[in-house]
Amino acid sequence: MSTLALPGRMSREDPDLNDRLREVFEALLRLHGTSARPVGSESIARQTDIGLSPASIREALAELESLGLLERTQASSARVPSAHGYEFFVRALLRPTSLSEATVDQIRSSLHRSTRDVEALLHEASRLLSSLTQQLGLAVARSLDDVPLRHIDLEPMDERRALLVLGLDGGAAQTLVLELESPLDPDELREVALVLRSRLLGCVLGEARERMSSDRELIRRSAVRIVVRAASARWRQGLATPLISAGTSRIAQQPEFATSEQLGPILRAVEEGSPLDRLMVASIEGQAAVRVGLDATPGLAGCSLVSFALPGQVRGAVGVLGPMRMNYSFALAAVDIVGARVTELLQA
């Protein structure tokens, strides 16, 4: 499992690069980030204004390799940044990026249009992050069973369908579309809502779910029983949002994942959810952070994860998954502002 990398959090083990080594290292990072190919001294001398001879660049590359910041993928002089090199870059050399005012407005507008339903909001957050970063957008909310239930609404959709809105502590909500075994009119649904409020408000969701199947007051009335059965059918596994992803086509365009053999393991890891969901949540709440090189996680070798753990009652996270050469400065800025906005909406 990779370690967490935070901008400005240097480690005592980090090398102290002089100006020449830092300049060469950052030049190689830029070229590799654009091409996804190993970079040699000739390319750096020809494609940058670094002002060093190829011989001086070769010497610097060898020293950077000895420090563990670069590695060779083949028996040649060309090199790529190592996972340790990217971690060092994020901690020590990354320059913050500010998103444009238009981009920030787009994020706020798109998320505001989503309902306060947890799952709908996370779907939109993952879509937005994929669109902004051109990586795989991710979002997850852990089980809500320990969150207190503060409000219940029950609205008719048609004769045999109703919308159950569960208002959660902190202002968020979870909605369930109920398929009713018998038709109920709006007046009956209003009466059912009153009964549910009297028996369930103040419980945590896990307890409310249990009461729906065991409380005699809820199952002795026919209309209430119809709604309770429909809700229990939708609610058997508790209110937990699986790992949400968006942007498969975008990550498939990355050279590292261009073949089915390369992309397949990543998509399977995302579909399985664990341990990727745990990595996203296991971060510092309220701050975007990076896990560089998920080689210890099956299927995710060569990938990096930028995530934002949501503070507050809803334990969850948003983030992006992509190749190690991703634009960390922009990805961190995008994940940070989307995560902060999702937090605001959940706590409003």
Could you characterize the architecture of this molecule?
The chain is of the alpha+beta class and 348 residues long. It folds into three domains: 4-93, Arc Repressor Mutant, subunit A (Orthogonal Bundle); 101-142 and 241-347, 2-Layer Sandwich (Beta-Lactamase), CATH 3.30.450; 149-234, Enolase-like, domain 1, CATH 3.30.390. The chain contains 14 helices and eleven strands. The protein has helices spanning 19-35, 41-47, 54-66, 83-93, 101-113, 118-133, 186-200, 205-214, 216-219, 222-234, 248-252, 260-272, 276-281, 328-347, and strands at residues 4-5, 70-71, 80-81, 136-141, 149-158, 161-168, 173-179, 241-246, 288-291, 303-310, 316-323. The strands form three sheets. A six-stranded antiparallel sheet has the order 1-9-10-11-4-8. A hairpin with an 8-residue loop joins strand 2 (70-71) and strand 3. Helix 5 packs parallel to helix 14 (328-347). The two termini are 35 Å apart. The model has no long low-confidence stretch (mean pLDDT 88).
Q: Would you report the number of β strands?
A: 11
For the record, the CATH architecture of the largest domain stands as: 2-Layer Sandwich
Q: Which class of the largest domain in CATH terms?
A: Alpha Beta
The span between the termini is 35 Å
Q: How would a textbook summarize the main sheet?
A: 6 strands, antiparallel
List the secondary-structure elements in sequence, H or E: EHHHEEHHHEEEEHHHHEHHHEEEH
Radius of gyration: 25 Å
Strand percent estimate: 15-25%
Q: Overall pLDDT, averaged?
A: 88
CATH superfamily of the largest domain: GAF domain
> What form results from the Cα inertia axes?
elongated
Helix amount, in percent?
40-55%
In the predicted model, the low-confidence regions spanning at least 5 consecutive residues are none
